[in-house]
Amino acid sequence: MPIWVQTALLLSLSNIFMTFAWYGHLRTLNSKPWAVAALLSWGIALFEYLIMVPANRIGYTELNVGQLKIMQEVITLMVFVPFSVLFMHQPLKLDYLWAGLCLLGAVYFIFRG
């Protein structure tokens, strides 16, 4: 499996954990003290880091740090939009499309020749 595919898959998995760690408590722990939400989020974030660090180390064997960052941002949007709509019950906004188009431009510039 190509390095960029391995990296993208691992970053996607880590991003799912990250998104739940950062935003999931807003829906599930809204009535709990912030410290409870922070500790639970920190625990979830540990799993995110256990996947993200190897993903970046694998990716860095063939990609530069800028390419890794842009890949992460594209994956973040790809994970966040369904999370926002399906889990957080937020409306799907046209702004997500515009943000995605901007990221496509970033992908072009960071990965070109």
Automatic annotation (TrEMBL):
Parts forming coiled coils: none
Organism: Azotobacter vinelandii (strain DJ / ATCC BAA-1303)
InterPro entries linked: DUF486 (IPR007437)
Protein name: Transmembrane signal peptide protein
Keywords: Membrane, Transmembrane, Transmembrane helix
Transmembrane portions of the chain: 34-53, 74-90, 96-111
Pfam families, alphabetized: DMT_6
Record bears the keyword Membrane: yes
Source superkingdom: Bacteria
